[in-house]
Specification:
The protein has about 400 residues and is an alpha/beta fold. About 30% of the residues lie in helices and about 20% in strands.
Length: about 400
């Protein structure tokens, strides 16, 4: 199951920053047995030695990363623990390389003067958030990012704006890269072609975008139709823009005098060396470290060799108790199958288009005939996911997708 994180660009944000199954990109999953048991031993670093994941000493991981030119730290944008982990890594890197520069995906390039003023201590926190147009350009809760910004300010570490304007990514999604005039590309160069694996991954994400058009969320209009080539151009431009900003900060200085440049960005931009690492290599930057946080019950059990240079296994965080998902229907078992006898006003079922009298033939592609089986499947549905139903309404077969709300 893929969780989608929607935001600034309805195209590229389909997967960047989201919790994705890494199976879409390469290889077979982490084997069961001793290797899988590593996922139960949290708060440690892991790296692959051939096909096997092995624990790593924190000192060794940080020392190896500090010896690179660029270090990329991934994140799921809405995860507080991911940002706490990033702060921990930044502090460790700064201890070894005080000549640090931190680049942030969160800011378009035009806001660089605001970042400079913040690091100099010339802006209060409310002024910083207002002048960076936080609610417009990023709009994730600012408190989960502010410790990173404060760390840069306190230590006078330069902050670097890595992103481009939404207007550029939208123009590329509409017209393709070649259809956007050079003067409107914000100085971004043409991206290096993607690897076959990355292209296939983007093709799958595009297909999800197509499915979203077929099943729009609630009352929102479906996202615009985007050709596959434009979709890929949009993502590659985003990757290229951030890579160019990071590489540009290294400049043409002597290697011994170069700072250590760290990039803070969604994990989808760096997994398996695709995205930003691929574009950095095309720009001549070869010494790159990619570090990712992973969760024990999700990503850790689907790790593949090559996902990143090292991974930090975060402990699970208890979630507040929530009521199990409910459709808001009354079900009847009958000779002719499972029937919806009542739909509650304002319920998820009503919003999804279900009606009294409908017969449920399938749920998630599986035949169902008993109410107990249907209720169990609904109760197991994770927040924020989709449940496709095949409905028989009179003599017509309908496909309805129920979108369970994300956990509040």
């Amino acid at each position: 199951m893929i969780k989608l994180s929607f935001g600034r660009s309805c195209l590229a944000m389909l997967f960047v920053g989201a919790s994705l199954s890494v199976a879409a990109l390469t290889g077979s999953r982490l084997a069961d047995g001793p290797a899988a048991r590593l996922c139960n031993e949290t708060s440690r670093w892991l790296a692959f030695d051939g096909q096997k994941a092995r624990p790593q000493a924190a000192s060794g991981v940080i020392a190896a990363a500090a010896a690179k030119e660029v270090v990329l730290l991934g994140e799921q944008h809405d995860s507080e623990d991911h940002h706490r982990w990033q702060l921990q890594v930044l502090a460790a890197l700064h201890a070894q390389r005080p000549d640090l520069v931190i680049g942030f995906e969160m800011f378009p390039r035009r806001l660089q003067p605001v970042l400079d003023r913040w690091v100099k201590g010339e802006l209060t926190t409310p002024e910083f958030l207002a002048r960076t147009e936080w609610e417009k350009v990023w709009n994730f809760p600012p408190h989960i990012y502010l410790p990173l910004f404060e760390f840069a300010r306190i230590n006078r570490i330069p902050m670097l704006a890595l992103n481009v304007e939404q207007t550029l990514t939208r123009a590329i999604s509409d017209k393709g890269w070649d259809g956007v005039p050079v003067a409107e590309r914000e100085g971004v160069g043409k991206a290096a072609p993607p690897s076959p694996a990355y292209r296939e991954f983007l093709r799958e994400q595009h297909q999800m975008h197509v499915e979203m058009r077929r099943h729009p969320h609630g009352d929102k209009p479906p996202p615009p139709e985007v050709p596959l080539t434009h979709f890929i151009d949009t993502q590659l431009t985003w990757d290229r823009a951030m890579a160019e900003a990071l590489a540009g900060r290294l400049g043409g200085t002597d290697a011994a005098a170069r700072p250590l440049v760290v990039g803070i960005m969604g994990s989808g931009h760096l997994r398996f060396g695709h995205g930003v690492p691929h574009q950095l290599r095309a720009l001549g930057i070869q010494r790159i470290a990619t570090l990712l946080p992973v969760s024990p019950d999700g990503e850790c059990r689907e790790l593949r060799p090559g996902l990143a240079d090292a991974l930090f296994l975060l402990p699970d965080k208890p979630l507040p108790p929530v009521e199990p998902p409910r459709l808001g229907v009354t079900l009847e078992d009958g000779r002719d199958g499972l029937r919806i006898s009542q739909v509650m006003a304002g319920s998820l079922a009503e919003k999804s288009g279900l009606q009294a009298g409908d017969h449920i033939a399938e749920m998630a592609g599986r035949p169902v005939s008993k109410s107990a089986e249907a209720i169990a499947m609904i109760r197991r549905q994770p927040p924020g996911t989709w449940l496709p139903l095949r409905i028989l309404r009179r003599e017509e077969a309908l496909e309805i997708v129920v979108r369970f709300p994300a956990r509040s």
